[in-house]
Amino acid sequence: YHVQFSQSKEILTDADNDAFNILFLGPTGSGKSTLINHLYNQDVVKAVGSASSVTRSMTYIQGEAMWSEPGKWKKFDKVNIIDSVGFCDTELPPKQVHHMIKNSVKMNMTYIDKVVITCSGRIEEPHYKAIKKFMKWLTYEDHKHNFVFIWNKCDTLSDQEKAEGLVDMSSILGTDLNIQFISPCGYGRLDKSIKLNHCLGFAPGAPFEEVEKDLQSLKDAVFVRDVNHKRIPVDSEACAIQ
Q1: Backbone dihedral angles phi then psi of residue 226, each to the nearest 5 degrees
Q2: Is 226 within 8 Å of 183 (Cβ atoms)?
Q3: Which pTM value belongs to this model?
C-alpha cells in the first residue's frame, strides 16, 4: 500500500470527518515532520533539525491510502495526518504548546484513529511529562492499540543500543513494550503481526534499500488497524486545559 498526497490545511471541514485520523506528537527536533514526509514519499511539511519547532501551527496533511492485492482487489481510504507543534520549544511556553494542540484537535476532529509518539535521543523530564499529559487525555489505557511509540534517528545505533533504547523509552513513558496485534493482511486473512514500538532511522540521502525495512515498519504501525479497531473519541467537554 502507499499514500498519495492531496492537500494541506490548517482547519478541517465536515467533509473531512470520514477520514482515518493520525496525530503525530513529540518534542521539538524528534523528527515528526520527517516521518510524515517519508509516509507520503515527498516533502509535504517543512523538516529541519533545530532547537525551535519548525511547525508553528497545526497542519492537517490530507491524502489517500491505497491498499491492494495485485490482480484481486483495491481499497482506498482518506487519511488526515496531523503534524503538531513540538513540545519543549525554545520560544513557546509548554502550556501554550499544550493548549494549542488540544484546541486545534478539539475544533477539527471528533475521533482520532492513531496517535504516533515520536522521541529521539535522551528523553528529558519536560518531554515525558508533556507526552504523559497527552496520553492521559487521549485515554491510552483504554486504547493501547491506537498508540504507536517511535524512538527516532537511530540509524547510527547498533541493534543492542536500539533494543536498550526501546526499553528505556517504554520504562520512562510507562507503556507496554511488547504490545502488538494481529491484523488482516488482505480480506479474510489474519496473519500479520503489527508491532507498535519501534526504533527507526532514516539517514539523509540513504538509498531505499537501507531504509526499506524501517519504512515498512512505520507504515504498518501507522496505517494498519486492529480487527477490533476502536476510534479514540475527542470529547470537547472533557478536554478542558488542566
Answers
A1: -65, 150
A2: yes
A3: 0.90
